[in-house]
Write a structure and sequence with these properties.
This protein is mostly helical. It has 15 helices and no strands.
Amino acid sequence: MVDVFVAARSRGMYRVLIVLAAALLLALGLPAAASADGLAAGPAASEACATCHSQEMATWQASTHAKAQVGCETCHGPLAADHPARKGSMKLEVESTGCRACHSTTYDQWKSSPHAAMGVQCIGCHLSHSQKARLTDVSLCGSCHRNVLTEAGHGAHEKAKISCVDCHASSPDGKSAPSHTFTVVADNCVACHGKTIHEFVAQASTSQKPDVEKALALKVQELEEANRSMMPLMAVNLGLGLGVGGLGGVVFMLAIMYFRERRVRK
């Protein structure tokens, strides 16, 4: 009887050990599976594209997209079964809406900019695989804004080695993504011209003050003279108004008396 009990207990322990071993293997296998799934849309999945697109792959590997685990399928969609046999089977997003999912703030800025109004998409300025600008700042902007770059103000900034991006697409805090509204904010000017602006304001407030006071005094004098010249006309208008009003009143009263007299006679 004791032997049977020992044997049963041994079998029970054996089952427990099997369950524990299975649980341990499952626990060790889950992280590996999760890791593989996490890379499915990232660099690991992009390795299949390198067979035919080695140059694009090399460019992508040095990009911010690769560092952020953004793989080929994130932008191009899942690998089509008939690719590359059937031309056009892979998605190629050229609209800026494809960038919106990850770059929502930048997309919203771009959406309200003149670039969006003119249909200039993200890939019009950025290379899709490296995310770098297609040309240098001046060359890229100058390809559309040739006339603007010939203006004196822009020419002076160019001579000072200040690029278009420094003023039109600077980062608000120097760390976040550059602004894509492309409008020049006052802080950008103050950053370089703060001292000059302050000196100009101070000089204007002191040197122009007498001129402003003189102009105001002349304006007040003109208004007073205009009022004085209107006085005779105002008296004539008042008299005329009273005369016309009085005459009208007399005519009205006479008319009432006339109709009343006629009614009495009838």
